[in-house]
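User: Show me a protein chain along with its predicted structure.
Assistant: Here is one chain, sequence first, then structure tokens.
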Amino acid sequence: MLDVSKQLMAEITPGWIIAVIVIMIGLVVLAIVAKFFNLWVQALFSKADVSFGDLIGMYMRKVDARIIVLSKIRAVKSGLDITTNDLETHYLAGGRVPEVISSLIAADRARIELPFKTACAIDLAGRDMLDAVHTSVNPKVIDCPSASTGKHTIDAVAKDGIQVKARARVTVRTNIERLVGGATEETIIARVGEGIVTSIGSAENYKAVLENPDTISKRVLERGLDSGTAFEILSIDIADVDVGLNIGAQLQVDQAEADKRRFQAEAEKRRAMAMAREQEMLALVQENRAKVVEAEVEIPKAMAEAFRQGNLGIMDYYRLRNIQADTSMRQSIGGEDKGTPKA
């Protein structure tokens, strides 16, 4: 065995080693060529200027070469001057390269100025770039209030206290320059709703609103509600205007009801005070009667003392008793209680 191994080692020369290395390198190159050959051919015949070195570099940087090459072919065929490095940079930044290319092509066809860096910034901001370009070309209509809120009308009250219900349709188109950092549709809806409420609230009466609903849209447009937003308001159309409740009368009724309850409470308070005063007076009467009874008890004592001192004679006593008897008889005939004067 040792002799065989020594013989094989002797037969392996530096030439064989070099040949093996060359074959291995060739196999690797062949594998790479086979992997990217189709893409390279597509780029070559499309004049996209993507070399094998670029494809290998994409593979090493973990970039999806197919997305980059196909996007570069679309850009070249559309006449856009975008380098492969720019596409790779946006891909590595987490951007959606095909959507950006589609939006650039759509903007170029619609003759809308949209630089590649601006499109990348809008895409990285999370906005739908293609939808923004479509909206810029074909304005869209926003319902105010939005159906997602569950409300169907915007309610406001005119100066005469009558509620007016309105529904508007806002036509907007995307402002590409303000798309990054600009407010969204929710801000437009909120501002338009606020403008409608203000316009109806400043009307003298509900009839003025019903007769000229276009005054609402004119006042709202004059306020420049699209400032600081990603949209440009083209028109505001009042789709529907209805009369609601008489809020002013309802408030007056509620106020009158509240006043009535307050007055009733005050009257009940006075009645309770009067009843308490009455009970106090009755108690005072009973107290005075007790004093009278107490004083009457002293009369026999005084009479006895008068007899002893000779200040009262027997005939005077009988005369006094006759007067008392006559008085009691008259009171009995008159139906009066003893000791209680008739009212």
